[in-house]
User: What shape does this take?
Amino acid sequence: MTNHWIDLKNANVILAMGSNPASNHPISMKWIKRAQDKGAKLICVDPRFTQTAAKADLYAPLRSGTDLAFLGGMIKYILDNKLYFKEYVVNYTNASHLVNPDFKGPADLDGLFSGFNAETKKYDKATWSFQKDENGIVLKDPTLEDPNCVFQLLKKQYARYTPEKVVNITGTPMDKLMAVYKLFGSTGQPNQAGTECYAMGWTQHTVGTQNIRAMTIIQQLLGNMGIAGGGINALRGEANVQGSTDQGLLFHILPGYNPVPNAAQVDLATYIKDNTPTTKEPKSVNWWANRNKYITSYLKATYGDAGTKENDFGYSWMPKLDVGMNASWLTIFDKMYKGEFEGFFAWGQNPACSGANSNKTRQAMTKLKWLVNVNLFDNETGSFWRGPGMNPKDIQTEVFMLPCCSSMEKEGSISNSGRWAQWRYKAIEPIGKSLPDAEIINELFFKVKELYKKEGGAYADPIMNLTWNYGEKDASGKVKHVDIHRIAKEINGYWLEDVYDTKVDPPKLIGKKGDLVTSFPSLQADGTTSSGNWIYCNSYILKDGKEVNMMARRGKDDPTGLGLYPGWTWAWPVNRRIIYNRASVDLQGQPWDPTRPLLKWNATKLAATGKPGVWEGDIPDGPAPPMAYPDGKLPFIMKADGVASIFGPGLVEGPFPEHYEALECPLEENAMSKQRVNPTIKIFGDKIDASFSCDARFPFVCSTYRVSEHWQTGLMTRHCSWLLEMQPQNFVEMSIELAKELKLTNGELVIVSSGRGEVKAIAMVTERLKPFKIMNSTVHQVGLPWHFGWQFPEDGSGYDSANLLTPNVGDANTMIPESKAFMVNVRKA
Amino acid sequence: MGVSRRDFLKLSGGTVLVASLGVNLNPAKAYAQELRIKNAKQTTTVCPYCSVGCGIIVYQENGKIINTEGDPDHPISEGSLCAKGSSVIQLVDVETRVPKPLYREPGATAWKQVEWDWALDRIARLVKDSRDKNFKTVKKAKVKEKQPDGTEIMVEKEFVVNRMDSIAHIGSAALDNEECYLLQKLVRSWGLVYVEHQARI
Assistant: This one.
């Protein structure tokens, strides 16, 4: 989330599209309701009349997989009716930037952008660039009239998204569509705030990233980024999926969003050069120019004294990807299916039920030599070898089930969707002989290291040189038990030397060897500081000579009245509660909306430096004065040009979002262009990967979702009898009209099938779904939750996972599978 | 006592204290509650399910969790919990938790219980064997190289990769930040690059 949960109360209009907070983030409704109590309006756009829809002031249905058509139409509506916040758009976004005149868009090229190579399915982005002057500064037209400026190109692309065309694609009733556009468009006024809440309903599409991009364009046009009650808010699905991403448990990022190095980055200098954006824009902060400090401090945390200036701080010990290599989830299971892995750790996860095309995932595991499953409960992953259709005697995989303990049996921090890192305490000893995950990790580290010590073996340097100072050691040097606080402090970072500011005379001590670093602006690129994750630097600090765990704070002061609670736990970065908050003020530093002052420049108050002028309110995105001042800075500090990107050339399928149909859809053609699906998606080529569009065997659009009573694959909640009693088994929701057509009755057992598998479910015939009218034909949509699995309840009464049906095709940028729009059939069991 | 529930938790700083002090509930409501939690020690936690991050108070007595309830001081949840958050006690008070490591031999039709040390030694052996066999320090790749005349040609070069491709790892968003950090540190020290978790699905 750019904002945070409590901030929902500050919005005038809340758009829940691609999410269902009432079911999946129930307590967030407290803050949505509080906004509604003050007169705010909740809009829900969803194929199904969800629990959120039931609380909404305005509900609009749309066919799964057509969000981009819906949002593209909203962009057109905002532009046509001049509802955008012009001063914000001109000063804080790249709307005025002039694009390469050779750039062509879908309006010119029938759904494609310039530079497409049909053979490689990739774009050459040479024309997706800006015009620059002789000093390398981007040319701009603040009047927004130049035909090559971003604003005019935006207008051109979305002129095609007429309401008539949109409803023909989405199936949304025209009056509902226009009502949503009008209501959300009303937040372009400086004194109005609109926010968007999305979740898997937007990410799980082959155009997932562009769904979110389209909304960020809307939020930029309306001036809703960086303000209280605004923002674009990912409602994340797990308690610590924000934190686990921050800590780099993905193939492409190290902790703190430093990219994983590739083989062509032959040394640290090349890595830094490749990953450090540059700009000539005089007012841009370009925060990633600090990359060298963050990667060096990470390497120092990882390798300690073994990492020296001479050996690039141990950079060569880091594993490197091949250039352009994708090692993401779907690729892992594709390779596993082909027998390319010997071993596999499924740690705190249940891929046998959570992975798209679960039959492929389950088959893939049979090819492994060994599998380690770490979890509280046995599950469909650990027990895959005794699952449906498996003959255990034929499966030669050695399997370990290591029981970890629950969060109440250990201590540590987790980061919620609003980036608040909150500390949890240990209440009891681990149940049975289960262990905290950290202890299991510790044991594995030392056992492997011990083998290398005894036997030698392949390149042991990265293991031997790894720092591991997390507690008292035994005679062999092994850490007996992990002190979680020591890890938290390593993540924050230390001064490794006495460091002086030599720019002043006499030089002033800014960091004392052995002290915790106070915050990331102090991190150094010369190896004199460590920080395991720079964005968490400031989470564990030295205050009045004492080490303070900021994540454990319980202060309840709310000085702004906006619900920032700066003394409650800690938010990254540097306890900033709303990111890009400098966009909430005008060029003089005064809030666009004085009734919601998130930040305010006090020009007369003296700063700590003795100079007049300080920011009041939230922790600002940098201390620089407002834009209008000679040394003022642009607000979007993480963007090289300092402004938000309406034109975003970073994504693979285009700098503006364009509507394409889902890989599996009920339509032969895309009504918007000749290009039916996202041209840049990766299709896995095996028979098991086949897709079935416009196939009479699978006539209904399907989407997976969740219910309040279960969590993800249900591997924890199915074991909680209170929850299982409330939601005991799989069901499939369908309209009354479809049930009539299929001669099915409510409560009847049915089979839902796709080209990849089938699953039993109870028919839930409901008014919550209605047939869609799409291009004069009727399209039915069904949906089912993905919380169930064969392994528990042991009698099979819950049936199996809905992911047996979903396609293993991913978003072109992220490779998140398209679980929200695919085709199925429903028949009597 | 003039100590409100909020002050009480502030004093405790989340560490354990006897709960009979400072509970400032409505007396009529509190009576039944106090019977159960009278001598319990309190700690605070955050719900392990969705990402709202609601606060929960855990009551422990004689090494067992006897009650969990919404933390009224928590600014987001203000004491409220959903069905899942209200049921966290069932994660510890349930027979199906796996008490000891389980092991399934190749071709076996059932699990058997094993000791931690045995299981971890065996896994360490499998990791090392796979790593020793498959670890690559360098890899050849074709890359574009600029020629003196300005043209580019593809040349095969050797690059340092220091990795292994024979083991994959996924997980986990269910772990604490400190554990996630430690886990990425561990698997990257072995040379793994096939490292993923829930954020990708």
Notes: The radius of gyration of chain A is 27 Å.
